[in-house]
Amino acid sequence: NTEEIELHHNDYLLALSFSVLNYDSPEKNQYKYKLEGFSDKWEYTTSTEPVVYTNLEAGTYTFKLRAANNDGIWNNEGTSLTIIKKPAFWETNFFIITMILLTAFAIFWGVRAYNRRLVSRYKETTAYNKKLNAEIHERKKAEKSLQEKNNELVSINNDLEQFAYICSHDLKEPIRGVYSFTNLIEKTVQDEATRKKTMPYFQFVYNYLKTQQNIIAALGTFTEINKKQTLTIVPIHVNDIYKSVKNNLEELIKNKNAVVNFTNSTDTHIIQSSEYELTLVLENLVKNGIKYNTSDTPHIYVNLTSEEKGWLFTVKDNGVGIEEKYHEYIFRPFKTLQNKSKTNSSGLGLAICTKIITRLGGKIWLKSTPNQGSIFYVFLEKQTPNEENTEETPKLAARQ
Questions:
Q1: How far apart (Å, rounded) are the C-alpha atoms in residues 178 and 391?
Q2: Which CA distances in Å does 336 have to 192, 226, 288?
Q3: Mapped to the 3 state alphabet, what secondary structure does the chain carry?
Q4: Torsion of CA 144, 145, 146, 151, to 10 degrees
Q5: Residue-wise pLDDT tens digits, 249-287
Q6: How far apart, in whole angstroms, are the C-alpha atoms of residue 26 and residue 71?
Q7: How confident is the model over 44-86, as pLDDT tens digits?
Q8: For the whole model, what pTM was predicted?
Q9: How far is the C-alpha of 203 from the C-alpha of 135, rounded, in Å?
Q10: Which of 72, 108, 326, 395 shows its CA 20 to 30 Å from the CA of 93?
Q11: Is the pLDDT of residue 293 over 70?
């Protein structure tokens, strides 16, 4: 009997029921309704179940209803109900205008405060710049002093390299002399009993001399690599590198009854690198795998694989292995885990490898377990050939 209803903003559900006073076949009654402001489309139904609307927005709606009796005659005048959904307080014009004013006021005071801060910041920046200019002046003086000291250190380093280079060459002759005279002294011992007694001492001398020769040779190689400003990058056939390594170690492989397998798991046979230096690295790693190996038949596996940004050589052996705590230690100069007099090791082999691989823009590391062998990994970035360095590639020599 009402023509208007009001809903609060938190009234979520609205259900409207209706009926027609027609008792002659009421099941044939028909209805059509629409809620103007929500939808302009008439909805048809024969059911008297409530019409439900949910979550209506704030505003004024008109629910219109028309009915037809069992003969299908429609009452086009129908009836209507005005529905007013009250807005929440935050949806009212008063609230919106108030918030706009408050926001404008906040912006005004924010801009004003910001301008004051800018002025204060400008003064601070000016003072800081003065201080910074003074520091820059002092820093330039310090940099100049540091550059002078750096030049002095470079000069000292060059002198040390020159000294090491001279030592590696000038000490060869005295050692050869000691070796020759020791050999002559050994030959002068004719008495069998005396010879048998002194032979171990002569052997100790020979071993120490051999170790010194290896150290001098390795020192020469180390200083030679340091002196090079750039390395010659050229296209290299992988099989040529493998062949050079095998030929250089042919005597050691034969004496130790070793088996060395070279494989290439890539789809190319050409890589870009420094031939002399790369061959020297692989030669040192293969040699170590044979020397530090107590098995009757040392097995060495050298393989090349292709990575996304470079090439990866792996050198695997069945040697004595290395404890994890020494994995970084052995790459330092003159560091070895074995007695140098027994292995004739210079302690520079892996240091030379590290120096070369670093110069080539790569890295070297290993995985190893005692008594289970070692795997050395040599990663080289893919490079392009250069023609700046035209130094003659020196002949490879067996080095530790």
A1: 35
A2: 37, 21, 11
A3: CCCEEEECCCCCEEEECCCCCCCCCHHHCEEEEEEECCCCCCEEECCCCCEEEECCCCEEEEEEEEEECCCCCECCCCEEEEEEECCCHHHCHHHHHHHHHHHHHHHHHHHHHHHHHHHHHHHHHHHHHHHHHHHHHHHHHHHHHHHHHHHHHHHHHHHHHHHHHHHHHHCHHHHHHHHHHHHHHHHHCCCHHHHHHHHHHHHHHHHHHHHHHHHHHHHHHHHHHHHCCCCCCEEEEHHHHHHHHHHHCHHHHHHCCCEEEEEECCCCCEEEECHHHHHHHHHHHHHHHHHCCCCCCCEEEEEEEECCCEEEEEEEECCCCCCHHHCCHHHCCCCCCCCHHHHCCCCCHHHHHHHHHHHCCCEEEEEECCCCCEEEEEEEECCCCCCCCCCCCCCCCCCC
A4: 90
A5: 999 999 999 999 999 888 888 888 888 888 889 998 999
A6: 10
A7: 988 878 999 988 888 899 999 998 887 788 888 888 999 999 8
A8: 0.48
A9: 66
A10: 108
A11: yes
More confident residue, 138 or 195: 138
Tracing tokens 């082999």 back to the chain, one arrives at 349
- Among residues 359, 336, 98, 334, the alpha carbon closest in space to that of 216 is found at 334
The first and second tokens of residue 396, run together, are 């490879």
In whole angstroms, what is the distance from residue 389 CA to residue 229 CA?
Answer: 9
> Is the separation of the CB atoms in 369 and 361 below 8 Å?
no
d(CA 199, CA 192): 10
Tokens of 22: 């027609």
Burial of 152: CB neighbours in 10 Å, binned 0-12, 13-18, 19+:
exposed
